[in-house]
Design goal:
Structural class: mainly alpha
Number of helices: 9
Radius of gyration: 21 Å
Largest sheet: none
Strand content: under 5%
Number of strands: 0
Oligomer: single chain
Mean pLDDT: 94
Order of helices and strands: HHHHHHHHH
Length: about 180
């Protein structure tokens, strides 16, 4: 939020405090890189991004930040190195596959979207939104039967989640 408001000093203080609390978090180090980069401290940004991927080799945010960092810095060779790592990490991450599917659907390529949604579902089969988006992509291709199957699966998963939430909420009430 501080960065969005142009308050770079406050953003730096906040990220330093976060690192003091948990210096082993790849996400915080990646965010520190963003703060440093947007504050014009490129050397510190690079060190922070690299620290993040040292802590978590497949950290998608840090890898993505490194790709952009090296592209912006005119270093396409290093950008390509981290882009390959990013693509491997994304291939193993259901949410990345889902987001890639969404971008392919938005680009008007539903067949590509389906492939990514199906990968996401193989990795995380009980996520209703994956099935709902798969249904939309099938619908865009004109495969009404597959679209309906995916919608039914999404609805069953949502109902199951709601039922489990209801049980937890009832448990939270405690004894009369």
């Amino acid at each position: 939020e501080y960065l969005l408001q142009g308050e770079h000093a406050a953003a730096t203080e906040a990220i330093d405090a976060a690192l003091a609390l948990d210096g082993s978090s790849a996400t915080i180090w990646s965010n520190a890189g963003v703060v440093h980069a947007r504050s014009g401290r490129r050397d510190e940004a690079e060190r922070a991004y690299l620290r993040a991927v040292t802590l978590q080799r497949d950290h998608i945010g840090a890898l993505s930040n490194l790709v952009g960092f090296f592209r912006a810095g005119g270093n396409p060779v290093r950008a390509a190195t981290y882009e390959r790592r990013l693509q491997r990490a994304q291939a193993q991450d259901p949410f990345s596959q889902f987001l890639i599917g969404q971008s392919r659907a938005d680009a008007g390529v539903p067949a590509d979207a389906i492939a990514h949604y199906r990968r996401a579902i193989r990795m995380l089969p009980r996520e209703p939104q994956f099935h709902r988006s798969l249904a939309d992509a099938y619908q865009a291709l004109g495969d009404v039967t597959a679209a309906e199957r995916a919608r039914e699966r999404a609805s069953r998963l949502e109902k199951g989640q709601e039922a489990r939430r209801g049980i937890r909420e009832a448990d939270d009430l405690g004894p009369g």
